[in-house]
Design goal:
Elements: H1 11-32, H2 57-71, E1 75-80, H3 83-92, E2 97-103, E3 115-117, E4 135-140, H4 147-160, E5 161-170, H5 174-181, E6 184-185, E7 200-204
Parallel strand pairs: 1-2, 1-4, 2-3, 4-5
Antiparallel strand pairs: 5-7, 6-7
């Protein structure tokens, strides 16, 4: 029989797969139902292949609040590879600040003109209208825990910021973060909606409310 060579899923695996797809459909259904906020964390699913791990709602709120205070009235905020902070800032619908998102994942282009495609491998390949030192604070979360990724992202951060930097990355990157950006570790412990294996921390180069 030709069918003998076709691998079959066990009934348990098949049931688990069907449950996963059902949950996914239900989530998508909730998103399209009336009153869904397109800026809610989780409105765009994490893609682990892109090393995406969204912050918990509490962490995103805390970082967004910190950014607004640090930016000041009328301030400009750039979120580099930190979409869940961007989403939380947009939830605020603030009139006293503006924000943009620099992100590799083109799904975030649904946010219109505030979305800027960004590949850390080309740190200064940015639109001409993104002027140097035009943001009051830059929040960045490099996608990979490597010095190469941090170093290249640091180029982008230093180009964009007027001075203030809020970096979110692994605790093991403390030495490299100080070396490339002059930032120091904060007391605040950021958390993710799914627990990460690596200890995660925040770093700043100014007197912040995260201590």
């Amino acid at each position: 029989d030709d069918d003998d060579d076709i691998p079959q899923l066990s009934s348990h695996t098949l049931a688990a797969l069907q449950e996963f797809y059902l949950e996914q459909q239900q989530r998508e259904g909730m998103k399209t139902s009336q009153g869904f906020n397109q800026y809610s964390i989780g409105s765009i699913e994490e893609d682990w292949q892109l090393s995406q791990f969204w912050y918990s709602d509490e962490t995103a709120s805390c970082l967004a609040n910190e950014a607004v205070v640090a930016a000041g009235k009328g301030g400009r905020i750039a979120c580099v590879s930190a979409p869940s902070v961007y989403q939380k800032l947009k939830e605020k619908d603030g009139k006293d600040f503006s924000v943009c998102i620099l992100e590799y994942d083109r799904r975030f282009s649904v946010y219109g003109e505030e979305f800027i495609f960004y590949d850390y491998n080309h740190p200064l390949n940015l639109p001409e209208n993104l002027l140097p030192h035009s943001f009051d604070i830059v929040i960045a979360d490099p996608p990979y825990l490597s010095e190469e990724c941090l170093q290249k992202t640091a180029e982008t951060i230093k180009y964009l910021t007027k001075g203030k930097i809020l970096l979110c990355t692994g605790a093991i990157m403390e030495e490299q973060a100080a070396k490339h950006l002059g930032v120091k570790i904060c007391k605040f412990i950021p958390k993710h909606s799914r627990n990460l294996a690596n200890e995660f921390r925040c770093y700043v180069n100014y007197a912040s409310g995260l201590d």
